Amino acid sequence: MGRSGGSSGDDRAVQAGALRSDRARVCTISPPGLRPRIPAPCGTVVIGRRLCHPISPVRNFRKYGIIADLNEARRDALFAEYGVLDSQPESAFDDIVKFAGALCEAPISLISLVERDRQWFKARTGLDAEQTPREVSFCKHAMLGPGIMVIPDATQDPRFADNPLVTGAPHIRFYAGAPLISPEGIPLGSLCVIDSAPRHGLTPLQAQGLTVLAAQVMNLLEARRHLHAMERYDAILAENVEKFRILADTMPQMVWSTLPDGYHDYYNKRWYSFTGMPEGSTDGEAWNGMFHPDDRERAWERWRHSLDTGEPYEIEYRLRHHSGEYRWTLGRALPMRDPGGRITRWFGTCTDIHDHKRTLEERELVAHELSHRIKNIFAVIAGLIALSARTRPEIKPIAEDLRNRVMALGRAHDFVRPHSDASRSDLGQASLRGMLGQLFAPYGGPQGRIVIAGGDTDIDDRAATPLALLFHELATNAAKYGGLSTSEGSIRVEISADETHCTIRWQENGGPPVTQPPELNGFGSRLVQLSVVTQLKGEIDKRWQPHGLDARISIPLESLHR
């Protein structure tokens, strides 16, 4: 018969792999005309007289009546997921083997799980042994087929005639096994019934019943698998929670956590030792009662803003200590989000900064006092100059000029001295040109020897200090050695800005000729580097031209004003 009218030899071999007895379907993997053969090595199937690589995925084998996915590593991993091997007897499995034995009128019935080296019986009736070696297993063959494997008389089957379970107890003659296949298509074993007397096979009802019972075994195994996975997950979750608690309890900060809506449901031990409150008493919104009355509304507004926007939470407030004292605390929190970006929880800390804040306040007080005394020194010097001018009329013009310079230095000092909240608000927002004008006033004279050109930009008090130190140092050096050290010298300061940076160019002219660049390793040079690079996050490029210093200073706008 031609190819167009029938099947090839290999196709016939595959079709013959599922033979039917007069009562039940029998699955083999042997070519027609030959007696049944032992299955090929793990991971291969026999089609006709050839060894072929397995077809993937496994469901393709069912098309041909063959399953042969025997990747032992995958089977080991799957058995571990089920957590069933060597487990205690369970009534649900025991009831199935009892019913299977009664249905098929067989004295022995088993749920056999086939491992690498053994088959272990999850449930059994009529057999004392709990396991047997894999090499004598009938079920290792039965699990390879999509349907029930029936052996009418094992003594007549070359695969089993010399099997110890046939030649000795329990003297197997009849065997019928329904495969147990995982949802991934991996064979696990079989639900089988065994008789010591030969039989023709199973009735259609018995075959249907055994198939249904095998499916129920898999349902129970899958339920156990999910339960085992949940137990592993719960164990991992419990371990991680315990790790977090240990880590949080060893931190010097107070650690807390809230639900997405801000409901506080966790505090570490440090919180309770700091506040002295009973455990659980500050859950929910009760934590707000721990704030200083003057800080509560401000802290609530900031917290509500973070809950509404998802922005990080950070604020300083006074928190009640167990001693009754209110101590300054830095509160911070960040949200944890799921893959979709939704906030699932907030984690925060409270850090006791009371001592640090008091130390800073003391330092600031000392700095203010020193600054005030320095400012008074300028006033005293200016007064002495004025007094000398009144007693020495011939020096009055020079004295007046000197007095103006000293007073200008005093005004410039306002930019570099520490400020309290009150003095800072009086100083207000300043411009770069305005600050430079006051700084350079002592050096300007009637000829305006320092010219400020270009644009302008706002600066705040935080940027004013390093800027004033920087240009005061440049102007002092120019007065000593550069463009202001001669009567004809001058300096041009040009300001320009783009969207991100402010650039200031310092050009000296008319000073002593520069034959070689000076060494820049003194305190003044380090001060310039500290002011520009470290504090203002900018860059300075100094170039010594024959006519004097030519410097370019680039500073991010965000460093100049907040």
TrEMBL record:
InterPro entries: GAF, GAF-like_dom_sf, HATPase_C_sf, PAC, PAS, PAS-assoc_C, PAS-like_dom_sf, PAS_fold_3. SUPFAM superfamilies: ATPase domain of HSP90 chaperone/DNA topoisomerase II/histidine kinase, GAF domain-like, PYP-like sensor domain (PAS domain). It is an enzyme of class 2 (transferase). The keyword Nucleotide-binding applies. CDD domains: PAS (cd00130). Pfam families: GAF, HWE_HK, PAS_3. Residues 240-310 form the PAS domain. Its EC number is 2.7.13.3. Keywords: ATP-binding, Chromophore, Flavoprotein, FMN, Kinase, Nucleotide-binding, Phosphoprotein, Photoreceptor protein, Receptor, Sensory transduction, Transferase. Residues 313-365 form the PAC domain. This is histidine kinase. It comes from Sphingomonas colocasiae. The lineage of its organism: Bacteria, Pseudomonadati, Pseudomonadota, Alphaproteobacteria, Sphingomonadales.
